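Forum: Protein Structure Q&A
Topic: Joint prediction for protein chains with partners

I've read a bunch of threads here and the consensus seems to be that you should model interacting components together rather than docking separate models afterwards. I'd like to see that in practice. Below is the full input, 232 residues plus whatever partners are listed. Could one of the regulars post the assembled result?
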Amino acid sequence: LAKTTQPISMDSYEGQEVNITCSHNNIATNDYITWYQQFPSQGPRFIIQGYKTKVTNEVASLFIPADRKSSTLSLPRVSLSDTAVYYCLVGDPNNAGNMLTFGGGTRLMVKP
Amino acid sequence: GAGVSQSPSNKVTEKGKDVELRCDPISGHTALYWYRQSLGQGLEFLIYFQGNSAPDKSGLPSDRFSAERTGGSVSTLTIQRTQQEDSAVYLCASSLVFVQALKTSSYEQYFGPGTRLTVT
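Posted by a regular:
Agreed with the consensus. Here's the joint model:
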């Protein structure tokens, strides 16, 4: 399984754009990159998923360079409610047992 | 439709007792996952099911832990002779397999609210 490395924590202010980068140097050809968000006392919630280049949805954007050895989750104009832990996962979704390693995540604190 | 449900939401038990945690996945989801999360920590994978089969049980912390899934739906995680270090939130998730998820253009795990287990 591809190992991921993320910053332990980040601070930001309301209205700013936040970029969280995840390193996954040994990503495999069939692996996808998925990000989850977890609020206190809740289970993680899917944010976005991608394979290459750029993916955008109503919540975030995901930037993946050509070598796919890293990815960046971009949260536009964060608010206090975006304070959460963000997890990066890498794995082959064709194998249910391959998307299991959540790691420690990045604890984002948004300040007023 | 209903999401993943787990019961009980909270469980306090005495050291040495057995506990059983239940997970009801989203209907039609063939994959089911169990995780454990200690206070302030990340998620620790325990076991997953593809249908009723658990291909890899190596993530279970000890032989006091077991899990089963019947009928491709409900799953139970059983902890025998509980210890204080078993105290954590136990999270269950379910998902489609990718070929099913192609219709929605994404593959994701849907998590339940968790069961908070406290062993005294």
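Chain B touches chain A through 30 residues (CB under 8 Å).
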